[in-house]
Amino acid sequence: MKKTFTLTALLAVACGAMAQTGGGVAEAESFVAGGIRYSVTSADGRTVEVVQSEGDPYAGDIVVPQTVAHGGADYTVTAIGYRAFASSTVTSVELPATIGNICGSAFQDCYHLTKMELPDGIVEIGDYAFEGCSNLEIDRLPASLTALGYEAFHGCYSLADSLTLPDGLKEVPGYAFSYCGMESLDTGDGVTAIGINAFNGCYSMASVTFGDRLESIDAWAFQDCSGLEKIELPASCTYLGPQAFYGCTGLKEVRVAATTPPEADLSTFGVNSLTTPTPVYSQATLYVPRGSREAFAAHDCWGLFENIVEADFASSISHADAVPAASLAGLTLTIAAHGDYGVFAADGRAIARGKAQGKATVQLPRSGVYVVRAGGHTVKVAAGR
Fold it and tell me: What percent of the chain has pLDDT over 90?
């Protein structure tokens, strides 16, 4: 069955060139304040978005304020408009907490942009918003993010060493993070679909953790992620597109929690046999739930794996699927688990990552709510002094 990935529309009112007034839609009014040009998005609501400069392009370090004064009134800055900083020579941009939308191509091809923080409150990042920002570093995506555009971070080679997607994000659209340089990826607990080429060419990616709600991984999504050695697909995953993991020549272990083989193409785990003498199907071990080996062996794709091993996924081979037990003594967190673990702040920032051999200890930076992930399971802990 062919799957079609639906891109999320990011045509927010705040990203338009028109303003809503009491009498209907009118041409947007624009003005300059503090060297930044703004366009009124709501005269009644007193909101504006940052738009392209009419004179010389923006350059250097930019600080966008929360409010600006115009015509005797204060306006709240709620969006970075379409191509507002595109192809400019800005080196840093400080965004206010009032920003809810970063519109299409807003920072596209800003090669000089090196680092910026995306404040919580941002719910939409549009198509091509940061495409081609090859030197950009972003520590984390905002926990408030619910919609991401096509090619939003394509070619952001320096984006992050470790990327965790916020739980409110349901779909990763096509090419969203292709050719990015992250070493580890956690798709979070909300993502159900990963689009075509979403992480294609992320050669440095050594580990990926999929959430328990993931249903589909579309064509070429992880193509040529040659650093991956292991993938674990949750029981909810029912579809892998053609060449979804094509060229992942480092794969040594593929674990599938579903008892029914997910739909997959003959090329899903393929490689170019002219340049890679040992195909993934012969070098990687496929682990499947007990009692399902026969079904996987009879499948056109999964049956290509030469080594198929049944495992008890409730307490698997390395106990990686055991629900982690977490206990607190002040700000000292003790995790009882086997295998890879991660500790995250409530806003999604990674606090600690590692591999537990029965127990791991993490010193938390401050009181608050933290998320502990291990073996595909998640628990929350509240630390207090």
Answer: 66
Chain position carrying tokens 């080594």: 307
Interatomic CA distance for residues 231 and 247, integer angstroms: 14
Place of tokens 């193509």: 223
Q: Which of 57, 47, 54 is nearest to 16 (CA)?
A: 47
Identity at 4, one-letter amino acid code: T
Sign of CA dihedral 113, 114, 120, 126: positive
Q: What is the 3-state secondary structure (H, E, C) of 198-260?
A: CCCCCCCCCEEECCCCCCEECCCCCCCCCCCCEEEECCCCCEECCCCCCCCCCCCEEEECCCC
How is the beta sheet containing 230-233 ordered, strand by strand?
Answer: 230-233, 253-256, 285-289, 307-311
Strand order in the sheet with 207-209: 162-164, 184-186, 207-209
Residues 218, 2, 286, CA angle at the centre, nearest 5°?
55
Question: Do the bridges between strand 184-186 and strand 207-209 make them parallel or antiparallel, or are there none, so unpaired?
Answer: parallel
Q: How far is CA 18 from CA 12, 15, 82, 197, in A?
A: 11, 9, 12, 34
How many DSSP H helices and E strands does the chain contain?
A: 2, 30
pLDDT of 313-368, one tens digit each?
A: 643 333 334 445 778 888 888 887 777 788 887 666 778 888 776 788 888 888 87
Tell me which of 328 and 263 has the higher pLDDT.
263
Phi-psi region of 139 (alpha: psi -120 to 50; beta: other; left: phi over 0): alpha
The residues, any chain, with a CB within 8 Å of residue 127's CB and separated by 6 or more, are 10, 104, 105, 149, 150, 151, 152
- The label of the residue with tokens 């999604």 reads 348
Q: How far apart are CA 69 and CA 83, in angstroms?
A: 23
Query: Side chain identity at 192, as an amino acid letter?
Result: T
User: CA-CA distances (angstroms) from residue 378 to 86, 212, 330, 344?
Assistant: 39, 10, 21, 10
* 180/202 Cα distance (integer angstroms): 5
